[in-house]
Amino acid sequence: MDKVVATAEEALAGVMDGASLAVGGFGLSGVPDVLIHALYATGVTGLSVVSNNCGVDGGGLGILLAAGRIARVTGSYVGDNKEFARQYLSGELLVELTPQGTLAERLRAGGCGIPAFFTPAGVGTQVAEGGLPWRYAPDGSVAVTSPPKEVREFDGRRHVLEHGITTDFALVRAARGDRHGNLVFHRSARNFNPLAAMAGRVTIAEVEQLAEPGELDPDEIHLPGVFVQRVVELTPEQAADKHIERRTVSAPSARGTVRH
């Protein structure tokens, strides 16, 4: 039952070229940075990544992307990652864009053993009708498009069929975790982490604080350990090394203070 491994490198054992990964995080919040850096160091390539977005230039999954290690991305938006946009538009990267809520449910469904489900999101658009550019050719033409999906009516409303997602591995970050793999996430860092963890056949969690079995309040656990196979405890320095995508500072207030 003790799922703790000594290092991130040991936790990533078995991740090979062409593996599929579900990765938690939203922007740079709750991103498993230590595992991503360790994965970069292994040199694996041809990865298929399922994540809300693909990090930013120089951060999160953007590190693997810039090194040409990612072949396919399933996500909900490109965001501020210029390299992501460049690779997509130049035909170097296959990108399956899906509505954000649909992506969340596809991960959850896959983790629960549900092969497919119907949702109204995307009906009447290329999400359902097909034709979304998945890959461009070098000359800018569309080389691969999304296929049409089944649409069915329920209670007078049309719904589109979406498939659950499962991946070879999942990489997530939690604020606290115990040796059994039970995880607690901190506020907005919870985002896609529990869902990504559910979808992975082998889920690896980096935790900022490691607890002994029984120390976590059962009512506070966001993800039960049944979904987690490996746990890596971060050093205090690793746990404190957090980034934000864009820092904005408001004008000085009447009292002369600056609010962040």
TrEMBL record:
Give the keywords, sorted: Transferase
Tell me the protein family, please: Belongs to the 3-oxoacid CoA-transferase subunit A family.
The species this protein was found in:
Streptomyces mirabilis
Q: Which domain of life is it from?
A: Bacteria
Give this protein's Gene Ontology molecular function annotations: transferase activity
Q: Under what name is this protein listed?
A: CoA transferase subunit A
Q: Which NCBIfam families match?
A: pcaI_scoA_fam
Gene3D superfamilies for the chain: Glutaconate Coenzyme A-transferase
Q: Which SMART domains match?
A: CoA_trans (SM00882)
**What Pfam family does this protein match (any one)?**
CoA_trans
